[in-house]
Amino acid sequence: MAGKMHADELDIDEALVRRMVAGQFPQWAGLPVEAVDSAGTSNAMYRLGADLVVRIPRIPGAVEDIEKEEAWLRRLAPELPFAVPVPVGLGEPLDGCPWPWSVLRWLEGVNPVVGSVRQPAVLAADLAEFVTAMHRVDQAGGPAAYRSESLASRDPAVRRALAGLAGEVDVDAVTSLWDKALGAADHPGPAVWIHADLQPGNLLLDADGRLSAVIDFGCMGLGDPAVDLLTAWYVLPAPVRAAFRTGVAADDAAWGRGRGWALSVALMELDYYRDSNPRMVRTARHVVGELLADHA
Question: Would you give the distance in Å from CA 140 to the centre of its chain?
Answer without folding.
Answer: 23
